[in-house]
Amino acid sequence: GGAEELRAALERHADSCIFRVLATGLVERGLRVPADVADAYSAYFEATIVDGGVRELIGVLAAAREPLSDAQLEDMGLLQHFDALPGASLLFERRELRVQPLHLSLLEWLRETREGDVAAG
Question: What is the rounded distance in angstroms from the CA atom of residue 23 to the CA atom of residue 10?
Fold first, then answer.
């Protein structure tokens, strides 16, 4: 079952705290157990309908050299899309008046997979 599959995946990735967080979050949301961290990011994006504003916000977050402030995103008209981000409040969080990724590997994954293709919905 799902619990056994999750337990096996966590054992395979015992050295990866980020995998544990991502995989557990997916299962709690009733989604599939991922094969690895990149597959977990894919699963979050596959489970979310991403519209134009959210896609633009993802692109801006992925391209930024540092976390952007709420004020910067508000000025761009993008902060309003935060709650619709894939895995919102898990993959991305608002902390210290900035939108920050859960882990740098998320930004690397977004850049490598060309988020526009992944977030096509």
Answer: 8
For residue range 38-66, list pLDDT tens digits in order. 999 999 999 998 889 999 999 999 999 99
What is d(CA 46, CA 35) in angstroms, rounded to the nearest whole number?
Answer: 15
Cα 55 to chain centroid distance, Å, stands at 12
Q: With residue 99 as reference, give the H or E element that holds it.
A: strand 98-101
In terms of Cα–Cα distance, which of 26, 51, 53, 42 is closest to 121? 51
Token reading at 37: 């961290």
Q: Sheet of 98-101: strands edge to edge? A: 68-69, 98-101, 92-95
Rounded CA gap, 34 and 67, in Å? 27
Local structure of residue 48 (DSSP, 8 states)? S
